[in-house]
Amino acid sequence: MYTQAMDTMAKEGKGAPRAVAALSAEDAQRQARFDERIDADGRIEPRDWMPEAYRKTLVRQISQHAHSEIVGMLPEGNWISRAPSLKRKAILLAKVQDEGGHGLYLYSAAETLGTSRAQMLDDLHSGKAKYSSIFNYPTLTWADVGVIGWLVDGAAIMNQVPICRCSYGPYARAMVRVCKEESFHQRQGYEGLMVLMKGTQAQRDMVQDAVNRWWWKCLAMFGPPDADSPNSAQGMRWGIKRFTNDELRQKFVDATVPQARLLGVTLPDPDLKWNEARGHHDYGAIDWSEFWQVVNGHGPCNRERLAARVKAHDDGAWVREAAAAHAAKHTPVEAKAA
Amino acid sequence: MSTPPALKDWPLWEVFVRSKQGLEHKHCGSLHASDAEHALQMARDVYTRRQEGVSIWVVPSHLIAASDPEDKDTLFDPASDKIYRHPTFYEIPDEVGHM
Question: What is the pTM of this model?
Answer without folding.
Answer: 0.89
